[in-house]
Every structure is written in C-alpha cells, then in structure tokens.
Amino acid sequence: VPHSMESVVEVLESYRGRDKVIRTCCYGSQLVGGVLSRRAEAGSFSLGKSLLRFSAQLSQCRTVLRLFDDLSMLAYSCSYGLGTREEDAGVRWISVLTNVADQLYYPCEHIAWAADAELIKVKSEEWWLFTTVLWGTSLLLGILRSFRILLLMRKQLRRSRTDSIINGRFQLHKQMREEFLSIFSKTADLCNAIHWMPPGFLWAGQFPRWLVGLMGTISSVIGLMQMSSGNGD
C-alpha cells in the first residue's frame, strides 16, 4: 500500500501526471453523470447533474492550466526541428505537421478562453472551432504516424526472423503494442473531436454526454497506462 501511495503521489506531483488524472476524473464524471442524468429517479438525476457540473469545472481547470503550455510545446518543436534524426521520411513529416498543429492549438484556445471570460471582445465560437479543428488534425496525424511506425516495425520483424536476438524482437513487440494503444486512444479522442464540430459534419453533435465521457475515459485510462509503462511500473 505505501508503494502504491508513493506512485500516486509521484504522478500527482508532476504536471503531466496531474493533468492525466484530472482528465480521467473529468471524463469519468461525465460518463457516470451522463448515465445517471438519463434516469427518471430524482436522486439519480440530481447526482448525475452534479457530476456533469463537476466535469465541466475540471475541464475549465485544464483549459486554464494549458495557458502556460506554449513555451514547453515550442521548446519541443524546436528540439525536434525538421526531424532529421528520423530514419523514415514519412514519420518525419507527419511529426513536423503534428507539431505545427499542436503549436497553433494553444494560442487559439487561449483566445477562445479569454473571449469566454470577457477579457477580450471577440466571438469565442470561431476560435473554439479553430481549436477543435487543430486538435482533430493533430489526432488524425498521430494515428497516421502510428500506422506508419507499425508498418516499419512489421518489416523489421520480418527481417529479424532469422536472427537469434530474442530481446530485440521482444522490444519491437512492446513498441508495437504501444503504437496500437496510441491508435486506440487517439481514435477515441477523434470521435469526440468530430462530435464537437459544427452540426452536419459527420456525427457532429450526435453523441450523448455519457458517450463523450466513455470515449474520453478510454483515452485517458490508456494515457495513464502508457505513462505508468514509461516509468517502468
């Protein structure tokens, strides 16, 4: 138990870890709240609405915290550059485009947030749309990148069939599993991104709240799993 508590505290003390926990609680609350608010019982309905309000507050909290993410994203984009260290040109240019979409995402979201907070006099709807489009673009590019990496890994596995290096093949299988999880996670988020697009675009506006919560919870739990795996636990 102490070790588990230490692991939780370690996650919560890091900014990325805390964000993932808040995200999981946010979407988990929306999932449960969405289900309960559909029930006819007064108690369940009231609890469901409270959970939905709690989810909205956590979402707002994450938006405010992201006001300070521009510099860290810029530092990452600059360190990656044009991806000259990547062996595959496809992975390189997909990653560069993803970094551009991610970098543009933050100022658009800041403007939308400031407009909602009545700090500036612009229409927030257009900026929230730009934000959603950039997020969806980043997710789609991330899915394409993972598929490309999986294709390269499959070729590498075929070439290594005659090799006796078991550890190398094990690492490849582990990396492939991570890419599959990444695709699953980003696809769940992309479903929500499309839901938040203007009505008439695919299934925009068609998801009930519980389904939005379910997609987000799936993505968030996978993110926590990947972070835990990255820490060696």
Automatic annotation (TrEMBL):
Keyword Metal-binding: no
Compartment annotation: Peroxisome membrane
Parts of the chain that traverse the membrane: 127-151
Major localization listed first in the record, in broad terms: membrane
Keywords recorded for this protein, A-Z: Membrane, Peroxisome, Transmembrane, Transmembrane helix
One record GO biological process: peroxisome fission
Short name of any one Pfam family annotated for the protein: PEX11
Gene Ontology cellular-component terms listed: peroxisomal membrane
Superkingdom per UniProt: Eukaryota
PANTHER family documented for this protein: PEROXISOMAL BIOGENESIS FACTOR 11, PEROXISOMAL MEMBRANE PROTEIN 11C
Protein name: Peroxisomal biogenesis factor 11 gamma
Species the sequence originates in: Cynoglossus semilaevis
